[in-house]
């Protein structure tokens, strides 16, 4: 006889996720029934209010730990709350960039170059669906790092991915490139999801459980078939490594980063990385910790290749968005050092690095939206020549973000890289330490090359100009710059907070 078990839900702990889902549903209703004239302002208000309210709710429940927030499917602990807080703060900063409607097409359903598209542009229509789609993605991101069973993890993965597939195809200009990016992202994402589900099947076959705790117990007991365990870890890792853009699962990153609206690229590059690495840290630190020697060599090899490949290929890029895409691939390699470390220092360093890198990334892409000509954004690096003479403040801000990516002292990037390489060294991973330092030196070359291009070359009179940023873009860039340098100059409060709070419940 099958017994029905009443679900036990802790709504106070689940409130941050539920609030975001509620805001997304409210946005859908506004999109369906709200007056078109005020829809953009209403959606922006709902989105920001939802994210701020969710963050306030998260602060309220901080300090409470529970393995039964939603049966054994969701666990709230110190590390999970820190990762959720990082996602919400980055999302709030990114939403101000999304609010600049110049980034998005006037009518998503219109064929590129059609009369319908030209009419919609003349009527100055606004695609405000981006706001509820963003909130649905954020809800998935919030669930991803706190999910503690494989089914919930897969649901969260799809919840965060599907809206991003749509958002990637909404660019106002270069529509065909944007739609191509969305299609590539969707197809490769579906392919990675299939691998993820294969991993779930093998791990269930190994442990007769889909919960992280059940898999952990099976690994300790050693009663299952080790071949199933290895195949499960391999296939599951492919799905997760795709989301973080690690080599050789990185192929989507450059094309999607280049083709998607720049505001969406900023949100996707920053917040998705926090969520994906959060989930990866939890599953490796909780479920696979005792199977360390089975997966460690493969992850170390992927980390080394990702660092070197991302740094070397970025040198050859002449498009600023593709350059930042390969830079993000290299940073994924650096972050894998925190996974390999498998110690408290690695967890602390990964959380700090994810937040610091995410904020700087949003700011850097915010700068990219300001360099334009009559056809829209200018991403050809050759046309950024002399930008420092055209607009010193914009060039200085972009240089600051590039220095943070390079890990130069007095920026958050230096503290992040120092912490994560120290954790890798502490765990005995000297190969990652040496390769990481050398890759950082290579990466510094192409970052500094762009700075030299902006400040020490003469401007080319080709119609390129720096537009006056809207108040929303100003907020994004200002907050990102302040946080980037504040965490580089005085990171102690945040580091101490992470050290005292970050932990996984088993």
UniProtKB/TrEMBL annotation:
GO terms for molecular function: NADH dehydrogenase (ubiquinone) activity. The keyword Membrane applies. It is a multi-pass membrane protein. The chain crosses the membrane at residues 12-33, 40-59, 79-99, 153-170, 182-207, 227-252, 264-285, 297-316, 323-343, 349-371, 392-411, 431-456, 468-490. Its main location: membrane. The keyword Protein biosynthesis does not apply. Keywords: Membrane, Transmembrane, Transmembrane helix. GO terms for biological process: ATP synthesis coupled electron transport. It is found in: Membrane. Residues 147-442 form the NADH:quinone oxidoreductase/Mrp antiporter transmembrane domain. Pfam families: Proton_antipo_M. One of its GO terms (cellular component) is membrane. PANTHER family: NADH DEHYDROGENASE. HAMAP family: NDH1_NuoN_1 (MF_00445). This is Unannotated protein.
């Amino acid at each position: 006889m099958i017994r029905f078990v009443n679900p036990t839900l802790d709504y106070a702990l689940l409130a941050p996720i539920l609030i975001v889902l509620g805001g997304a549903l409210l946005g859908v209703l506004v999109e369906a029934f709200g007056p078109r004239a005020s829809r953009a302002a209403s959606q922006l208000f709902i989105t920001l209010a939802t994210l701020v309210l969710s963050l306030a709710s998260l602060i309220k429940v901080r300090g409470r730990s529970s393995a039964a927030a939603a049966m054994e499917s969701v666990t709230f602990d110190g590390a999970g709350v820190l990762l959720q807080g990082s996602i919400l703060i980055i999302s709030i900063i990114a939403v101000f960039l999304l609010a600049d409607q110049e980034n998005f097409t006037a009518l998503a359903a219109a064929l590129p170059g059609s009369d319908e598209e030209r009419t919609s542009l003349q009527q100055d229509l606004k695609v405000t669906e981006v706001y509820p789609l963003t909130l649905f993605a954020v809800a998935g991101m919030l669930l991803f790092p706190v999910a503690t069973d494989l089914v919930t993890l897969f649901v969260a993965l799809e919840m965060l991915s599907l809206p991003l597939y749509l958002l990637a195809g909404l660019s106002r200009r270069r529509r065909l490139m944007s739609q191509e990016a969305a299609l590539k992202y969707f197809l490769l994402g579906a392919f990675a999801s299939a691998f993820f589900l294969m991993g779930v099947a093998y791990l269930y076959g190994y442990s007769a459980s889909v919960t992280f705790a059940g898999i952990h117990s099976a690994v300790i007991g050693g009663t299952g078939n080790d071949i199933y365990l290895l195949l499960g870890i391999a296939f599951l890792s492919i799905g997760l490594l795709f989301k973080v853009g690690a080599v050789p699962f990185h192929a989507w990153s450059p094309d999607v980063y280049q083709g998607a609206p720049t505001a969406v690229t900023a949100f996707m590059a920053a917040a998705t990385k926090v969520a994906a690495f959060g989930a990866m840290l939890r599953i490796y630190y909780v479920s696979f910790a005792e199977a360390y020697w089975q997966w460690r060599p493969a992850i170390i090899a992927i980390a080394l290749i990702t660092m070197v490949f991302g740094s070397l290929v970025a040198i050859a890029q002449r498009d600023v968005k593709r350059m930042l895409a390969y830079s993000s691939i290299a940073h994924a390699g650096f972050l894998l050092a925190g996974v390999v470390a498998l110690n408290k220092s690695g967890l602390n360093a990964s959380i700090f690095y994810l937040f610091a890198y995410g904020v700087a990334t949003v700011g850097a892409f915010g700068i990219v939206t300001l360099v334009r000509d009559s056809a829209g954004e200018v991403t050809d690096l050759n046309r950024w020549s002399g930008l420092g003479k055209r607009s010193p403040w914009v060039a200085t801000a972009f240089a600051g973000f590039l220095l943070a990516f390079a890990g130069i002292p007095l920026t958050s990037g230096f503290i992040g890289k120092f912490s994560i390489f120290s954790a890798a060294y502490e765990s005995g991973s000297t190969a990652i330490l040496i390769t990481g330092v050398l890759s950082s030196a290579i990466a510094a070359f192409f970052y500094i090359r762009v700075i030299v291009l902006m400040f020490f070359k003469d401007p080319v009179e080709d119609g390129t100009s720096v537009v006056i940023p809207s108040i929303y873009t100003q907020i994004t860039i200002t907050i990102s710059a302040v946080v980037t340098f504040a965490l580089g100059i005085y990171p102690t409060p945040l580091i101490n907070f992470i050290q005292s709070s970050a932990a996984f419940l088993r």
